[in-house]
């Protein structure tokens, strides 16, 4: 029986050293995995975003067992990008880790530079933003809105853009003004739907969504979280509708809108009563 040669990867210390070595092997142009070798920053970026959302999903569902695996998947994305960069002599995993370490030190002077630690969370947030602004001033980001990542979810990016503009005074005084703007944008959307092209309808719809995000800011809530909660509520109630129909041996496709609406209202009442 031929002797099986153990792969030397098993001799590498467990944890991060082994993961880094595995990625080097996968990307080896002669002996690596064809799929991994073919990838580049752009092709891997969607997976990075997806893994970040899966981390958030495990936290949202309080699945700590899953969270360990999802964090590992997210770490793999960092290792993958760092390996591709190292191959091009751009940066390394160690330089990535050192850069974020230095950032944490510079942004926490009350911990690492002997400043007064007795600050409220609100004051620490103000200080954090001031330090970030100083960092942007020393970079190539010269405009107020520079540096807000294009790849963020649109709703999240809208809030970040609005927060940046608000710092220089470009903001409504209170939520009442935003509600007036929502009424205005809603009327413009109705007009566009009746009279304008589909592209113009889309533009007006986008304007309305943007103002809705701004309302969330003024109500001191996270629009992204509010929409996630609304998605979860819709899912729960629609599942209850399906369950009620299944108890009768039917599916939603075998029902009609009036019956679906009635079952939805029942699910809504049960959910509110159970609170």
UniProtKB/TrEMBL annotation:
Protein family membership: Belongs to the nucleoside triphosphate pyrophosphohydrolase family.
EC number: 3.6.1.8
Keyword Repeat in annotation: no
Gene3D superfamilies: MazG-like (1.10.287.1080)
Keyword Cell cycle listed: no
Domain NTP pyrophosphohydrolase MazG-like, residue spans: 39-112, 178-239
One of the Pfam families matching this protein, by short name: MazG
InterPro entries noted in UniProt: MazG-like_dom, NTP-PPase_MazG-like_C, NTP-PPase_MazG-like_N, NTP_PyrPHydrolase_MazG
Keywords in alphabetical order: Coiled coil, Hydrolase
One Gene Ontology MF term: ATP diphosphatase activity
Coiled coil region boundaries: 175-202
This protein's name: Nucleoside triphosphate pyrophosphohydrolase
Catalytic activity: ATP + H2O = AMP + diphosphate + H(+)
Superkingdom, taxonomy of origin: Bacteria
CDD domains: NTP-PPase_MazG_Cterm, NTP-PPase_MazG_Nterm
Alphabetical GO biological process terms: dATP catabolic process; dGTP catabolic process; dTTP catabolic process; dUTP catabolic process; response to stress; TTP catabolic process; UTP catabolic process
Secretion signal, residue range per the UniProt entry: none
């Amino acid at each position: 029986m031929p002797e099986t040669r153990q792969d030397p990867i098993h001799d590498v210390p467990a944890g991060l050293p082994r993961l880094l070595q595995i990625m080097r092997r996968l990307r080896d142009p002669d002996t690596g995995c064809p799929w991994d070798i073919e990838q580049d920053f752009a092709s891997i970026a969607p997976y990075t975003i997806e893994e970040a959302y899966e981390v958030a999903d495990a936290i949202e569902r309080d699945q700590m067992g899953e969270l360990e695996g999802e964090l590992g998947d997210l770490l793999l994305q960092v290792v993958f990008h760092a390996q591709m960069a190292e191959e091009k002599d751009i940066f390394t995993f160690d330089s990535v880790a050192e850069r974020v370490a230095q950032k944490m030190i510079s942004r926490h002077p009350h911990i690492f530079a002997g400043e007064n630690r007795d600050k409220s969370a609100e004051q620490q947030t103000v200080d954090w933003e001031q330090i970030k602004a100083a960092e942007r001033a020393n970079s190539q980001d010269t405009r107020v809105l520079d540096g807000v990542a294009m790849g963020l979810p649109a709703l999240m990016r809208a809030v970040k853009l609005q927060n940046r503009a608000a710092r220089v005074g470009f903001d409504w005084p209170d939520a009442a003004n935003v509600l007036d703007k929502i009424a205005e944008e809603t009327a413009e959307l109705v007009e566009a739907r009746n009279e304008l092209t589909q592209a113009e309808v889309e533009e007006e719809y986008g304007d309305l969504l943007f103002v809705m995000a701004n309302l969330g800011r003024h109500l001191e809530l996270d629009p992204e979280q509010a929409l996630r909660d609304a998605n979860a509520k819709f899912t729960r109630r629609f599942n209850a509708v399906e369950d009620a129909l299944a108890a009768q041996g039917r599916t939603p496709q075998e029902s009609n809108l009036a019956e679906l609406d009635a079952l939805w209202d029942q699910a809504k009442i049960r959910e509110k009563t159970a609170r």
